[in-house]
Amino acid sequence: MPPTPAAATSQGPAWDFSDVTHSDASLRRFLHGLPGVDQVGADARAASLGTRSIKTTAKAYALDLAIRMVDLTTLEGQDTHGKVRALAAKAMRPDPADPTCPATAAVCVYPDMVATAKDVLGDSGVNVAAVATAFPSGRAALDIKLADTRDAVEAGADEIDMVIDRGAFLSGRYLQVFEEIVAVKEACARPDGQSAHLKVIFETGELQTYDNVRRVSWLGMMAGAHFIKTSTGKVQPAATLPVTMVMLQAVRDFREATGQMVGVKPAGGIRTSKDAIKYLVVVNEVAGPDWLDPDWFRFGASTLLNELLMQRTKMTTGRYSGPDYFTLD
Amino acid sequence: MTFEYAPAPESRSIVDIKASYGLFINGEFVDGRGTSFKTISPSTEEVLSEIAEADEADVDLAVKAARRAHARVWGRMPGRERAKYLYRIARIIQERGRELAVLESIDNGKPIKESRDVDVPVAAAHFFYYAGWADKLEYAGYGDRSLGVAAQVIPWNFPLLMLAWKIAPALAAGNTVVLKPAETTPLTALLFAEICQQADLPPGVVNIITGAGATGQALVSHTDVDKVAFTGSTEVGKAIARAVAGTDKKVTLELGGKAANIVFDDAPIDQAVEGIVDGIFFNQGHVCCAGSRLLVQESVADDVLERLKRRMSTLRMGDPLDKNTDIGAINSGEQLKRIRELSEVGDAEGAERWEVACDLPTKGFWFPPTLFTGVTQAHRIAREEVFGPVLSVLTFRTPAEAVEKANNTPYGLSAGVWTDKGSLILKMASQLRAGVVWANTFNKFDPTSPFGGYKESGYGREGGRHGLEGYLRTPHESAR
């Protein structure tokens, strides 16, 4: 386990990791000293949580919470301003027929679409998240990644979803990954002294092992991530329940050690309400109810939202309606 | 607002519990001559049904029916034909799986998620597995001649699954059986009798007789049984061993345990915590191979305990039929009394009790998930089988000390080892005197894997190729 901080409380200062984060060797010692993750056992635990039966009032609560946690996403070469405006409108009023339906947490777009999204969303409370740092591969020089980030922040992004350099991580250059995250976090600063929130995407489908997921989660948290995020959605497999569970264990342990809470965002591949509810069960029983809040847990998704809306309508009317009754963007 | 899981009860409407049940002898239900008794639901104390008691004459009838069926039909039937019946039974168990699971949870008190996901599918798997052996006995290495009539007495903790462990290999090997389920949990065995009828199993091949200790004693002492198979307490197992001493009955006994679940400092801690929970709280701890002694390396003991307590606090206790229930009811008032008594001994001997804070239902038999710290080898709760959701936590410093403590028990049924180091797993497995050693998992049951004990945990193996040995006449015995 990580060193137990002497004075960490929920109000106290962040644990000082400087003795861990000063070199590849010290980072390696720390990350490889974390308890291992047994893949068979982790898969079995996630599957067992997936058998929870969430019905009636619990389901209604979970559906509304899941809608509020959605980062409604479009990340395509064919994106246009019109498409982004439509998506932003949908994020504010996911179900135009039902004013009690909550808004999503954010819309997630490429940096050049941030201004368009911001224009529609204004002060609606729905945030604009921008992917940056040569998304999705992360294969660019650091100054280009930082320029990409600054560009998105200047355009008004409230949240930055960066990707790490998976090649560097897999070849053991942990310090490089750490320093890149720190540098991107600095680039998130706005002139008014505020700062865009930083989500760090690990692309766990490329890191593959659960040991790697646990290590990279700690690396990201020590570097100051506000959120740790599974995937870009461009690599298969994207988010999985056991990977998300391992990350939730990491944020839980990080809070135990430092008093600091970090959010988790699974992204990609979560398409059904049933799946979303399984994730919420894992959040509830692994990290704890404190994380059942859009400030601390998000879904990166696009098609999931309509599925949630259909189930929500079914809960309130007792009837299923067809996809034609929900907007496409 | 918090995420409160709404009740999600499995419907009871699928089961049809009759007001009374007779004995299943020679393919039909007949009245018993003994004093009938009631079976109740341990979660509500509701009376479920009136069950016939078999007296000595009934036992004799059942054994005679089994003898006749063995001599005339089952013992002569080619293995490939016997296999067809076993496959048919296995499929019917699957088809009626929900019915069996609901009935098991009502009668036994175990959570529906366990009866649905473990008891019933593993029971079906045992029939499928041994169906495959029926026509291949000559390759198993134990001869291919059946023994004759098997007298089988099973416990209340896994009523249907223990029935499958007993009946499937016996029938595959060409034996006929008289089986007595535990008096607190007879209903799934009686439903299994209906399944035998549905499968057109020839009359007398499977006989189910109900009753308490006296019925079991009459069964195992009957002069015309060739084999006695018992799963239950060490005390009763010893009595059976004495009763059959001097006869030529073959015996297998699967008795108590006090398994060590050993967690090394390099273990995958989160999964080890899951394994500790599965090891002792699975089936309310009513598991003979339960990991009731946690041996944790001192250097990680505080961390493991903190995680374990946090995890235990998320266990959901209550209605066994609710699909979100993790911990069901204690099987009987008698067992609850024993668990309470031994826990009080733990308090009196100075161990520190910690239990999950939860409201216990007012009706039925309940005991919260509990652990004792500060336990040493000298404590009774570290030596005696509690057979309930009570974990004793001990620590060790070196692998040698772990082995020494783990083996320092009259039992030897199972053990668990948690470490990331493969070589340490192999070393521990070869030094632990336990019939089953799980590595980085616990309480996993598979029909292909033999199960059984050392020392006071009994003898003989059930499951796997080895499970056939107890039901076949070896070539040497055949020559006699």
UniProtKB/TrEMBL annotation, chain A:
Species of the source: Nocardioides szechwanensis
Enzyme class: lyase
Pathway: Carbohydrate degradation; 2-deoxy-D-ribose 1-phosphate degradation; D-glyceraldehyde 3-phosphate and acetaldehyde from 2-deoxy-alpha-D-ribose 1-phosphate: step 2/2
Gene Ontology cellular-component terms listed: cytoplasm
Protein's GO biological process: carbohydrate catabolic process; deoxyribonucleotide catabolic process
Single GO term (MF): deoxyribose-phosphate aldolase activity
Substrates-to-products reaction catalysed: 2-deoxy-D-ribose 5-phosphate = D-glyceraldehyde 3-phosphate + acetaldehyde
Protein name per Swiss-Prot or TrEMBL: Deoxyribose-phosphate aldolase
Keyword Hydrolase: no
One Pfam family per UniProt: DeoC
Gene3D superfamilies (alphabetical): Aldolase class I
SMART domains listed in its UniProt record: DeoC
Family: Belongs to the DeoC/FbaB aldolase family. DeoC type 2 subfamily.
TM ranges: none
EC number of this enzyme: 4.1.2.4
Entry keyword set: Lyase, Schiff base
Automatic annotation (TrEMBL), chain B:
GO molecular function: oxidoreductase activity, acting on the aldehyde or oxo group of donors, NAD or NADP as acceptor
Protein name: Aldehyde dehydrogenase (Acceptor)
Family note: Belongs to the aldehyde dehydrogenase family.
PANTHER family on file: ALDEHYDE DEHYDROGENASE-RELATED
PROSITE patterns on file: ALDEHYDE_DEHYDR_GLU
Cross-referenced Pfam families: Aldedh
Keyword Isomerase: no
SUPFAM superfamilies given in the database record: ALDH-like
Residues annotated as the enzyme's active site: E254
InterPro entries referenced in this protein's UniProt entry, alphabetically: Ald_DH/histidinol_DH, Ald_DH_C, Ald_DH_CS_GLU, Ald_DH_N, Aldehyde_DH_dom
Keyword Repeat: no
Key words of the record: Oxidoreductase
Aldehyde dehydrogenase domain span: 29-474
